[in-house]
Design brief:
Radius of gyration of chain A: 17 Å
Structural class of chain B: mainly alpha
Number of strands of chain B: 0
Oligomer: heterodimer
Number of helices of chain A: 9
Number of strands of chain A: 0
Shape of chain A: globular
Structural class of chain A: mainly alpha
Number of domains of chain A: 2
Largest sheet of chain B: none
CATH topology of the largest domain in chain A: Rna Polymerase Sigma Factor, Chain: A
Largest interface: A-B, 65 and 59 residues
CATH architecture of the largest domain in chain A: Orthogonal Bundle
CATH superfamily of the largest domain in chain A: RNA polymerase sigma factor, region 2, helix turn helix motif
Strand content of chain A: under 5%
Chain lengths: 182, 194
C-alpha cells in the first residue's frame, strides 16, 4: 500500500477535490467488497456493507487524523460494519423474518461469473460461514488479506495473543469442516 | 494425516517460541510425512486466497461509485431541503416581527438582528450535526472498543420464546442504530433462561 499517496488523496479530498474520493474508492472498493463478502457469505449483504462503508468514508474522511494508515482506518470500518450486519442477520434469522425463498433468491444474485470457480468458492464459502464470526474475521484478515497480527490488532483492538488463539481455532475448524466435506 | 495437525496449526498461527519453531522447521526437512501433511494444509488455506482472483462481473464495481455518489448527493439534497424547512420559518418570523414592531431605535434593530442571526446559525449548525449523526454515529468508528463485539451467538430458545413480542417487523432491526443494535444484542446474548 502506498501510504504517502493515500495521505495525499485524503488531503486533496479534504481540500475540496471530490475526484480524490473517487480515486480512494477505485483503490479500495474490491478489498472492501471481498472482506465483507467473506465475512457475510453472500453478495447482497456484501454489497450493502460496501456501499455503507463508502458513504461513511465520504462523510468521515475529514476526521481522519493521519495517525494510522488509511488502509487500517478503512478496515476498522469494514470489520465493524460487517460484524454488525452479521448481528442484524442473526436477529432476523432467529426471529424468522426472512423466509427460505428470500434466501434462495439472494443466493442467485451474484457477481462471480466463472462457473468452475463459483462452485469451488461456494464450497469454501460454506466452510467459512460455519466458523464463529470473530474467528472468521481474524482468518480473513490474516489468510486472505495477508495482514500481520500487529496490523490486525490495530484494526480490531484485540490483543495479539487473543488473535493468535482465534486464528488457531479458525484453522482447526476449517480443517475439520473441509474433511467432513470430503 | 492428523498426527501432526496441532503442531502444524501452532506453527502457522505463530504460537511457537523460537526453540519450538526451529525444531519444527528441522523436522519438516527430515520427515516426509510431516511435510506432506503441512503442504496439504497450506494448499487448502491457499484456496481461500482465490476469492479475489475469481472472474467477476466487473460491471458491478464500475457501477458502485455512481450508486454511492447518488446516495451521498441524495442525502445532501435532503439536508438542504430539511435545513430550509427550519430556517425559512425563522426568517419569516423575523420579517413579521420587523413589520409588526418597527424598530424604534437603532439599538433595538441591532439586537433583533443579532438574535435572529443567532437563531438561524443555531438551526443550521444543529441540523448539520443531526443529519450527519443519522448516517454515521459521531466518533463511532474511532472509539471502536475491543469489548464491543460480544459473542455473536444468540440463545435460540430465548429468542424463539420471547423475541417475537419485542419486534413485529424486520424493518425495526434495520432501523436500529449500530450502538442500539449492539446494546440489544449483548443483552440477548447474556440473557439466562430460567
Amino acid at each position: 500500500m502506498n501510504l504517502d499517496n493515500d495521505f495525499e488523496l485524503v488531503r486533496k479530498f479534504n481540500a475540496g477535490d471530490e475526484s480524490a474520493f473517487n480515486e480512494i474508492v477505485k483503490k479500495y472498493q474490491k478489498k472492501i467488497y471481498w472482506h465483507a463478502r467473506q465475512m457475510l457469505g453472500d453478495h447482497l449483504d456484501a454489497d450493502e456493507v460496501t456501499q455503507e462503508v463508502l458513504i461513511v468514508l465520504y462523510k468521515k474522511l475529514k476526521t481522519f487524523n493521519f495517525k494510522s494508515s488509511l488502509f487500517t482506518w478503512i478496515y476498522r470500518i469494514v470489520t465493524t460494519r460487517s460484524l454488525n450486519q452479521i448481528k442484524r442477520n442473526q436477529l432476523k434469522k432467529f426471529l424468522s423474518f426472512e423466509n427460505a425463498n428470500e434466501s434462495e433468491f439472494a443466493e442467485k444474485k451474484d457477481i462471480i461469473d466463472d462457473i468452475i470457480n463459483k462452485e469451488k468458492l461456494e464450497k469454501l464459502n460454506k466452510i467459512l460461514q460455519k466458523i464463529p464470526p470473530k474467528q472468521r474475521q481474524v482468518f480473513v484478515l490474516r489468510n486472505f488479506e495477508q495482514l500481520s497480527y500487529e496490523e490486525i490488532s490495530k484494526i480490531t483492538g484485540k490483543s495479539i495473543g487473543g488473535l493468535k488463539a482465534n486464528y488457531f481455532h479458525a484453522l482447526k475448524k476449517i480443517l475439520e469442516y473441509a474433511n467432513e466435506k470430503e | 494425516m492428523k498426527k501432526n495437525e496441532d503442531m502444524i496449526l501452532k506453527y502457522l498461527s505463530d504460537m511457537m517460541n523460537e526453540k519450538e519453531k526451529a525444531e519444527f522447521e528441522n523436522k519438516l526437512k527430515s520427515s516426509n510425512e510431516l511435510k506432506q501433511e503441512y503442504e496439504s494444509i497450506l494448499s487448502l488455506l491457499n484456496q481461500f486466497k482465490e476469492f479475489e482472483k475469481a472472474q467477476v462481473d466487473e460491471r458491478y464495481f464500475a457501477s458502485l461509485l455512481p450508486r454511492v455518489n447518488e446516495k451521498i448527493y441524495a442525502k445532501k439534497r435532503f439536508t438542504v431541503i430539511r435545513k430550509l424547512s427550519y430556517v425559512l420559518p425563522v426568517i419569516i418570523i423575523f420579517i413579521l416581527v420587523l413589520i409588526m414592531y418597527p424598530a424604534s431605535s437603532p439599538t433595538f434593530d441591532k439586537s433583533l438582528q443579532s438574535i435572529t442571526k443567532e437563531m438561524v446559525n443555531y438551526y443550521s449548525n444543529n441540523l448539520d450535526e443531526f443529519t450527519t449523526e443519522q448516517i454515521v454515529p459521531v466518533q463511532y468508528e474511532e472509539n471502536y472498543d475491543a469489548n464491543f463485539i460480544e459473542d455473536l451467538e444468540l440463545p435460540r430458545e430465548y429468542i424463539n420464546k420471547y423475541a417475537p413480542a419485542i419486534f413485529e417487523e424486520s424493518q425495526v432491526i434495520d432501523k436500529l442504530s449500530d450502538e442500539d443494535l449492539s446494546v440489544f444484542y449483548v443483552k440477548l446474548s447474556k440473557f439466562n433462561i430460567q
